[in-house]
Amino acid sequence: MVAISIIKDSNTKALPSALPSGLVAVFIGGTSGIGQATLKQFVVATKDKSPRVYIVGRSTQAAHPLLAELRQSNPSATLEFIRQDVSLVRNVDAAVSQIKKHETKVDLLYLSVGFVSFQGRIETSEGLEPSMTTRYYSRARAIQLLLPLLNHSENAHVVTVLGAGQEAPLLEDDLDLVKPGNFSIAKSSQHAATMLTLILEKWAVENPNISFVHQFPGLVSTPLLTRGSSGITGFLLRWIVSPFLNTFIAASPEDAGARSLFHATNARYTVPARETRAVPIPAELEKARQSGGGVFLVSDKSEYAANEKVLVDQRRLTGKVWEHTQQIYARVTQ
């Protein structure tokens, strides 16, 4: 386990001086929870260094006070909120198109958007289930579209907060879990995490100068459990389960955000070709291990999320997962 004190010390002392000026960051899912906490700490760490930050979210109401706070913490930052609901894949295309109008590079792509469905499989207008869309299809689409800009960075990181180490065997003939009886909260979560890791490994091999980090945050005190729930389930989650977990078990968003920022900037989680451009590894720590496919799979303790036994078998499906994903994109974005 990497102690949170080591991480916070590095983020506070080493990070601000090590980061270059003019960084471009894209946060998809930055208006609440872990994403918001990471965003706030990133903006503070780049004070007086003129970062340009794009925040993609669906709530203008949530964005306005956040933007005001961020501008106060770092007046040199250029901040742009892009209002798009990425439970629809085509909205990712619209958001990325807007970013590409202004930028030729992206240094950090941070993805933490998520949704948990307690109502079973209810499809969007694109014929996809929204929890799987936000956790896999939209995230992979954003990465795919931004790869050219990420490759123009001197030290690009892609950090996706989801389920590293939680990968499980896929249902090969029903990757999007559309067949009756296949969809469940657990299965959709496992499918999203597994497909995401496989595609990140594909991109890691093809783009060796980009650091891909797949992080499992563990239990964190965020509103995630109370979204997408209603009736008795919603009541129990909102007034009993969540308060208990948040009070006695869950980590704070601030601590989870500190870990995320560490994963996104420290040489410990940076590919060898770019390691000298990242924040130095604290003296107490060693270089983090990468998966067999070149991705930094990181646990909630900031250590390697070992799941190689599952991945060795599931890598045979990478081509099938990619073909399926491209077919989905062709259908929903035409």
Automatic annotation (TrEMBL):
Q: Which SUPFAM superfamilies match?
A: NAD(P)-binding Rossmann-fold domains
Q: Which UniProt keywords apply?
A: Oxidoreductase
Q: Name one Pfam family in it.
A: adh_short
- Determine if Oxidoreductase is one of this entry's keywords: yes
Parts of the chain that traverse the membrane: none
Q: What is this protein called?
A: Short-chain dehydrogenases/reductase
Q: Which organism is it from?
A: Neonectria punicea
